[in-house]
Amino acid sequence: MAEILKGGPVAKALTEQLLIRSEALRERGVVPTLAIVRVGERPDDLAYERGAVNRAARAGVEIRKYILPEEYETGELLDTIRQINEDPSVHGCLVFRPLKRKEDEEKVCALLSPEKDVDGITPGSLARVFTGRGKGFAPCTAQAVMELLAFYGYDLTGKRVTVIGRSLVIGKPVSMMLLSANATVTMCHTRTRDLAAECRKAEILVAAAGKAGVVSGDFVAPGQVVIDVGINVDENGSLCGDVAFEEACEKALAVTPVPGGVGTMTSTVLCMHVIEAAEKAL
C-alpha cells in the first residue's frame, strides 16, 4: 500500500516557521499584511477566504479585506489595486478570480505590483518563475507541490518527473520550478499521444490536468510518487482529484490524497509569500 503524503503536516511545520519570522518582523515594527480583493459572494471564494484568514492568524499575518459588489465598476476595481500598490503597510495582495469580465482580469494582472503579487498572477511574477530574474512570486499551488516534496524528503536532482497540465496556474510554473531543482521534466497534457505510457516512465508524476479521474491505475508505475493537484467534483458531489486514488495506491510508492493533500497547503504558502514580501520590503 502506498504511503499517503498528507498536506496537513507540511502546513503545520511551515506555519510554525512562519510565526517565528512574523514575530521577528513585528519586533522591527513591521506587521506582515495581506490584502484580499473579492468581488461578490461566490461560495468557493468565501471558503478559501475563511481558510486563508484562519491560516494567517496562526502565521502572524494580518488580513485586510477589500470587498466589491457583484456589479462593480472597472474603475473602482482598478482604483482598489492602485491603493494597495501605493500602501507600504500592505505587503501582499490576493485577488479572487475569475472576474466577471476577462478584460478586467487582464487589467488587474497588468496593474498589480509584482512585489505584492503573492499568488503569481502578474507577468512579472511569471517572468521570475520562467527566468529566475525579477520580482514577484510563484503561484501558490505550484509552490505547494515543491514544499510537499521537500518536506517528505524527495531529492529532485536527476529525477524523471512528468507533469500533466500546461496552465499558467500550475502546469507550466511547476515544470519550471522542477527544472530549477535539477529534475528532468516531461510536460504532457490530455492530448498527448499515449499519455499513460509517458506517465509510466516517470519516477514522480504530477497530475494537474483539471479532469476528475483522468489518471487511472494504468498511468502509474510501481514505485512511483504521485502528486495529485486536481480539485474536482465527482458525480456524487464529492471532492476528488485528477488521479483514481485507490488504483494509484495499488502501485505507487506514495500518493497525495484529495482532499487533504496539496490543496490544504495553498493558504500556508500564501502566508509564506506575504512574510517574504515583508522581509524584502525592509
Explain what the structure shows.
By secondary structure, the chain is α/β, with parallel strands linked by helices. The protein has two domains: 86 residues, Leucine Dehydrogenase, chain A, domain 1 (Rossmann fold, 3-Layer(aba) Sandwich); 125 residues, NAD(P)-binding Rossmann-like Domain (Rossmann fold, 3-Layer(aba) Sandwich), CATH 3.40.50.720. Helices cover 42% and strands 16% of the residues. It is built from ten helices and eleven strands. The strands form three sheets. It has a six-stranded parallel sheet with strand order 1-11-8-7-5-6. It has a three-stranded parallel sheet with strand order 3-2-4, with helices on both faces. Strands 9-10 form a two-stranded antiparallel ribbon. A hairpin with a 5-residue loop joins strand 9 and strand 10. It is globular and about 50 Å long. The termini are far apart. The relative contact order is 0.17.
Summary, kept brief:
This protein is α/β, with parallel strands linked by helices. It has two domains: 28-113, Rossmann fold (3-Layer(aba) Sandwich); 140-264, Rossmann fold (3-Layer(aba) Sandwich). Helix content is 42%, strand content 16%.
